[in-house]
Amino acid sequence: ELKVEQNPLFLSMQEGKNYTIYCNYSTTSDRLYWYRQDPGKSLESLFVLLSNGAVKQEGRLMASLDTKARLSTLHITAAVHDLSATYFCAVDTYSGGGADGLTFGKGTHLIIQP
Amino acid sequence: NAGVTQTPKFQVLKTGQSMTLQCAQDMNHEYMSWYRQDPGMGLRLIHYSVGAGITDQGEVPNGYNVSRSTTEDFPLRLLSAAPSQTSVYFCASSDRTRLEQYFGPGTRLTVT
């Protein structure tokens, strides 16, 4: 059974600081996703990581994937209040057969204070 | 394109009542799925479909039925609602590569 663990689950940080959210998963995966969710809203796709060593950046967010360690990180640089949200990582064991779906971590609730 | 739409946005049911949560997409996506989101649990897969006429169970299928008679629609049925089914339900769709999943706005269901 695939398990996805995120840490920390709750993070309060100050504007201007850097921090990293970690996502570990238990079995070999083809792809890893990062989503953002604002309160009462749906999920917004941030990154899709498809291969070992993949790194993607958008603004102050950068995601990376190490498939050997079964670890992905979401790094926040010089945080601003607008990045306050809940961040989820999710793993898809898609193999071309179309079976199953995403397995999500429990989410990291991020609060960025002035 | 409207993307993925879900109705209703909110629903309150009494224990034992039945209802159908609607999900539709206008992107001609083969793959559609239903997730439930509970506090502190992330999202969990209920059922999914890889095309019209094909459905299968996810992680938490008990108490839910689905069907896929058309490519566009993927309704989720609660036959006899229970308080444990109080949750926020999200429908998602993607093409056959599943490289990008598109999530609907969600349905917030309360069972009393």
Strand content of chain A: over 45%
Percent of sequence in beta strands of chain B: over 45%
Summarize the main sheet of chain A.
6 strands, mixed
Q: Provide the low-confidence segments of chain A as ranges.
A: none
Mean pLDDT of chain B: 95
Summing up helix and strand content along with how strands pair, one would put the structural category of chain B as: mainly beta
Total E-strand runs of chain B: 11
What is the succession of H and E elements of chain B?
EEEEEEEEEEE
> Of all protein chain pairs, which has the greatest interface, and how many residues does each chain bring to it?
A-B, 24 and 26 residues
The number of distinct β-strands of chain A equals: 11
Q: Mean of residue pLDDT of chain A?
A: 92
The shape of chain A, in one word, is globular
Radius of gyration of chain B: 13 Å
Query: Share of helix among residues of chain B?
Result: under 10%
Determine the structural class of chain A based on helices, strands and strand pairing: mainly beta
Summed up, what is this model?
Chain A has 114 residues and is mainly beta. In chain A, 0% of the residues lie in helices and 55% in strands. Chain A is globular.
Which short descriptors sum up this protein?
A: 114 residues; mainly beta; 6-stranded mixed sheet; globular; B: 112 residues; 7-stranded mixed sheet
Topology:
The complex is a heterodimer of chains A (114) and B (112).
Chain A: E1 4-7, E2 10-14, E3 19-25, E4 31-37, E5 43-49, E6 55-58, E7 61-66, E8 71-76, E9 85-92, E10 102-104, E11 108-113
Parallel strand pairs in A: 2-11
Antiparallel strand pairs in A: 1-3, 3-8, 4-5, 4-9, 6-7, 7-8, 9-10, 9-11
Chain B: E1 4-7, E2 10-13, E3 19-25, E4 31-38, E5 42-51, E6 54-57, E7 64-66, E8 76-78, E9 87-94, E10 102-103, E11 107-111
Parallel strand pairs in B: 2-11
Antiparallel strand pairs in B: 1-3, 3-8, 4-5, 4-9, 5-6, 7-8, 9-10, 9-11
